[in-house]
Records
---
Amino acid sequence: MSSTAQIGVTGLAVMGRNLARNFARNGYTVALHNRTDAKTRALVEEFGDEGDFVATESAEGFVAALERPRRLVVMVKAGEPTDAVIAEFAPLLEPGDMIIDGGNAHFADTRRREKELRERGIHFVGTGVSGGEEGALNGPSIMPGGSAESYASLGPLLEDIAAKAADGSPCCTHIGPDGAGHFVKMVHNGIEYADMQLIGEAYQLLRDVAGFSPAEIADIFRTWNTGRLDSYLIEITAEVLAHTDAATGKPFVDVVLDQAEQKGTGRWTVQIALDLGVPVSGIAEAVFARAVSGHAGLREASRHLAGPSARTLGKGEAAAFADQVEQALYASKIVSYTQGFHQIAAGSEQYDWNIDLGNVAAIWRGGCIIRAAFLDRITQAYEAQPQLPSLLADKGFAEEIAAAQDDWRTVINTAVTQGVPTPGFAATLAYYDSLRAPRLPAALTQGQRDYFGAHTYRRTDREGTFHTLWGGNKTEAES
């Protein structure tokens, strides 16, 4: 078999199949491999007219079909299946070849694999891919890590198949070494969780407090999508809310069980944020909200719990309230992205990745699930100030959130009064207030820690670490 394929894809489930088709559509010859030959044959039979495919039946044949340096994209389940594929193919590769993991791997696994393969002269490129099956086919946002050398060879191919932002630039960039790409994809998914939770809370308030029907709320979201909230998630929210269930004639949203599932990347985001000491309270509340929704037995057993006497707003009040909810949603969204970018910056510092936050925002402008118009603003903010400590330190965002805060607070107050849970709105406002507060109760917390555990404290009036000898004789000693 001649070595004619510029790229190969193994693992031809929906995402792998669509990525392979995307490469072929962009003029590349694509080698195909799957554990079962039937999927390989089916892809060629159904989509062979889209480009040049080389169907292979064995690992050896697959590797032989690839030109040097070999570029082998792995699209299988994260964890042990990925390790199994690496173990199968690595012995067949030569120094300079590369394995590209396009799955949702944990970045720590990617770091381990990259180190092990680097010692064998093989490049391992942990690559975040966002956009679902449609994005994989028509242009996803791509977040590759790995060595700069591997990106020099692989990058042009990925940039060709990536989504293009409104200015024509590809939604793909070299994120950084080893696990940087999968780390950024993980945080992307955490932000996605927060974004979806905030949209859900806005919907619940518009329905339970303002009294709008799902179809009316769909129209509200369509209007929002023409302004600063213009985004893929707002767009599809309107479509979901406008949809009528064919079997019952009811609004689709009313026949869906209210238990949201999750695949793990949101949990990873929160777990790693705790390890890094980074507050991502908006993302965390979104993860916990999904967890609460899944505890059906606990929720059923709690139906007897008392709540406030709720009232539905009048027509004029409802319209004004909808405007206030838009303000709360936008402000909370800014905070959620602020927290996510803080986590990426902290991870970059911890692992010496040197991630460019402006480039990250730029490649999220198209293809990915959280693509939104205001990512242009985030890109511009980091381009203007590469060392920006927080998005809330950007003058434009600070002014917008200041203008929104009165309505933001009113919406949360209304939610509390009416008994509508809004953990995302409340957590992001608390974060905002924590950052702007001149003093936090952490001073008391540290005093308590010194009292019961001699954990010491620092003072505001002089340098050093101190401990008070608590009890009858409260004297102070410098540690």
Note: Residues 315-351 form the longest helix (37 residues).
---
Amino acid sequence: MRDITAYDAAHVWHPYGPLPSPVPALPVASACGTTLTLADGRELIDAMSSWWAVAHGHSHPRLVEAAVSQAKTMSHVMFGGLTHEPAVDLARQLVDMTPWPLQKVFFSDSGSVAVEVAVKMALQYQQATGNGGRTKLLTWRGGYHGDTFAPMSVCDPDGGMHSLWRGTLAEQIFAPVPPDRGATDEQIDTYLAQFESWVTGEVAAVIIEPVVQGAGGMRFHDHALVAGIRRICDEHDLVFIADEIATGFGRTGDLFTTAAAGASPDILCVGKALTGGFMSLAATLTTDRIATEISRAHGGIMHGPTFMGNPLACAVAAEAMRIIGDGTWRQDVPRIEAALTTGLEPLRGRDGVADVRVLGAIGVVEMDDPVDMARATETSVSHGVWLRPFGRLVYTMPMYVSTDNEIAQICRAIEEVAR
């Protein structure tokens, strides 16, 4: 373990941090169910679902079997000019479970690339329909959509992680942060009128994270805001892009938050739990209308990842979608929501705690000041829980298979970090 840790510290660059890292990475030997087993034998509850992706538990036997079976047949084949059953099976399931009129599926390697593809789709569509002057995206502040260039341009330009690239990124249009969940009808109407005032003749599309803004601040807002954004897009002939990479497949208690809001997008981005966190895969879904116009004018979407439609990833994702289709998450997510509320709500009003919020299988404790990462890590690990705070936020996104006792242990660890 010492050799792994030392070489990692000297040579392996981890996300969002310097070399060497001020907080040494913990070597993981194995992962099963909700548990990470470290190289020294300690066991931790993965309270982050490994960045929100492992919805059904690590090494889920159905996903392992799907991967092993597919690997024995065909692990990869190029998607240009070829197709295969795993990709078609997955596409069929995604079309069936997402709201009408999403009918076309474009596969990619990661959530960030799914957003890149969505932006290209929106801009190509506007060009194809004679609106080439529409080159900008409108979004609200507080958002996060990924770390490649087009997604970075629609992340919060000040409070996000990408201010370093100002002047290099495309300049987009940012409305204020949406009102918090529980806003009055008047507050929602006022905000939507303000949001609409930012629409100009240059705007090609609106992109948002519906109902939950994730890595930009873990903020929750009302479904009525999503419905209002849909209306604004319709009235101004804008493409509505919904980034449900974090929220899709039941995380908030809805299969998809846009569907629950009655606000089907023109383009939908999914990822993370798409494979149950087994491996990287994402998808961008769109309508017949957008696909037809792009194909007529340009011959296709100008994007082609090498591992697009990878058979191994698609086979695992198709099985993960069948697990979602079994529907046990519909009981598990409300159960987890209730347990998180019970465990975290007593922290409200404590010294140093600015807010406590829970939605579905998401629990957030927002502090007054930035969290000391080294102390937070040491504290949570000492309580048998893996947490990864950022900024002022100590939060958890438990796996749907987490037991009530595990949720209680996660909440105790968060309480100790906050204390």
Note: The first strand starts at residue 28 and ends at 32.
